[in-house]
Write a structure and sequence with these properties.
It contains 3 helices and 4 strands. It has 85 residues and is of the alpha/beta class.
Length: 85
């Protein structure tokens, strides 16, 4: 299973690290409004960084874990639902 984590700030990094420790979680795809931050967290966890948040909603991925700022929650949920996540 491929799991997307949107937002790699304090709480997103915490959740991504917890998911990375779970053997059944599969691979992680991390995205952030700041792609460099997503890349740093992904490198630390052995995950993959997406070049943009929108990339999380493409391809074969379920579920997507929303950890972005409150202002992004609704938009990210709508985008994920539209993509079938």
């Amino acid at each position: 299973m491929r799991i997307g984590v949107i937002g790699t700030g304090r709480i997103g990094s915490f959740h991504a690290a917890a998911l990375a420790r779970q053997p059944d979680a599969g691979s992680l795809l991390l995205a952030d409004a700041d792609p460099a931050r997503a890349a740093r967290v992904a490198d630390r966890l052995g995950a993959t960084a997406a070049p943009s948040v929108e990339q999380v909603f493409t391809g074969q991925m379920l579920p997507a874990w929303g950890c972005a700022t409150d202002a992004r929650h609704v938009g990210d949920l709508v985008a994920g639902a539209g993509a079938g996540c």
